[in-house]
Amino acid sequence: MNIFEALRQEHEIQRHLVAKLVETHGDTQERKKIFEQLKHELKIHADAEERHFYIPLIKKDLTQEKARHSVAEHHEMDELIEQLEDTEMDASNWLKKAKELEHKVIHHLDEEEQEVFQMAGKALTDNQKLSLAEDYNKEIKKMR
Length: 144
Ligand SMILES: [Fe+2]
Ligand SMILES: [Fe+2]
Known about the structure:
Layout lengths: L2 H19 L7 H30 L5 H22 L6 H32 L2 H18 L1
Helix pairs in contact: 1-2, 1-4, 1-5, 2-3, 2-5, 3-4
Bound molecules: fe (ii) ion (2 copies).
């Protein structure tokens, strides 16, 4: 498995969870459960992805700007998560914010897969693509 396949697997989990989240209603156990799952998935993915994908990419001229942009988006998603935590789950604003998060997450994943992966494909060697996947998967396993 290379780093792109490893990251894509996690992206699918996030797409699934965020789609489920915006289907939930009010102050319910289901909404709480899915929100906590998504929050955890976003966090472990961003942490491991920054360490085993973006740090090597920031070191290369070709990918530095894209890598910085993606890391900034990780912070924007963190902020939306914090805002959701500060909002009552049965407030009408909660779903509005959750939909904002959904758009941000989908945009971020699509941009990574369509733009960042393509450039990273040129910037990284085949060996790097494999060894980064190994390191990334090891770290995700530890945190999950
Ligand atoms: Fe990301
Ligand atoms: Fe990602």
